[in-house]
What does this fold into?
Amino acid sequence: MELQETPASAMKSKHFPLTPFRIIRGVICLSVLLSTAFVFLIYFVPVAAVLLRLFSTLYSRKVVALLFGLWLGLWPFLFEKVNETKVVFSGDRVPPRERVLLIANHRTEVDWMYVWNLAYRKGCLGHIKYLLKKSLMKLPVFGWGFYVLEFIPLERDWIVDEPVIKETLSTFTNPKDPLWLTVFPEGTDYSDEKCKASQKFASQNGLPVLKNVLLPKTKGFYACLEILRSSLDAVYDVTIAYKNQCPTFLDNAFGVDPSEVHIHVRRIPLDKIPEFEKEVSKWLMETFDFKDRLLFDFIANGHFPNEGTEEELSTAKCLTNLVLVMAITGIFIFFTFYSSVWGKIYVLFSCIYIASAAYFNYRPYPIFGSVNGKLNKILRMKSH
It folds into this structure.
C-alpha cells in the first residue's frame, strides 16, 4: 500500500469535471474526516488502546474496532453516497464476520480504501489490517490512525520485514479476535513500466507472463498464511477494477473519479490451499494468473461474472453513523475549549504519546493480564 502521483501521460478526462462545487465539497469532506479522526484519536486512544490494553489485548482491540469502525464508516459513505460512485460486487457472496486473510490486486494507490466498502457490509470494518509502507506510519493523523488500527509497517526488505510480520501476527492467532488481514502480494501499485519489468522477469524465470497484474511476491503471503492458518475461516481472493480510469486519493476526495468500482470476490476454504511454501507459491502464481484472465474479461465485457452479490449501502445507516461521529466530535471539541487546564494537558500529552508511539511503533504490553494468567497457572499447579 503506497501513495504515488499519477504520470501526466496516463491522465484521461475525469468522469466528473472538477468544478468549484466539487472542490468546496471535497475540502469540507476532508476537513470533517481529519477533524473527526483527530478527536477520536486524542480522546479514545489513551483509554482504549493504552489503559485497557494493559489488562487485555483482546478487549482493547474490540473497543478500538468499535470506535474507529464508526470513523472508517465515513469513507464508504463518501464514496457511494456523496460521490455517487457505483460499487459493484460479484463472485461469491461471503458470510458476515468471518476471520480472513484477504489478497487483492493493486491497480492504484487507493485500492485498499475500497476494501472498506466490502468490510463495512460484513460488519468487519474496524477489524481490517494492512501491510503497508513504513513511511506512511509517519503521516500526521492518518499515520496515527494506521498505528492505532495495528497496520503492519514494512521496509520492503524481507530480511527486515520477516521478523516484524511474524512478531506482529503472533499476537493475532486468537480465533476469538476478529481479523481481516489484507495483503497486496504485488508489493506496489500497477503501472505499464512495472508491468514490463515484471513480464521480463517472468519470461526469464519460466513464470506466467501477466498483462493486467504484476507477479506476486510470495514470501509475505506465505508468512501470514503459515502463522494464521489454524485461526482463519477462509482466504478471500479479491480482484478490483475501475471504470473510466484508476483514481487517485484526490479523485476520491473531490468525487471526480472513478465512475464505477467493480470488486470480484472468491471465498477459498483453507483446505483448498497447500501447506508447504513451494506449493503455496505455485498456488499464488496461479491465483494471479486467474486474476489476469478475469481482468481481461472485465476489459472485454465491462463487468465481472456473477454480479450483484451485495446490496447497496443503506442511506439511513450511513447518515446515522455520520450523525453519531459528528455528535461525539462536537462534544469533545466543546470539552477541549471549555475544560479546565487538566483537560488541555490531557489533550497535549495524548498528542505527544500517539505521535511518538506511531513513529516508533511501540505498543503497551498487557501487564495485568499477564500477571493474572501466571497467578492462575500457579494456583492450578498447586491444586494438582
User: Anything to note?
Assistant: Residues 15-383 form one domain.
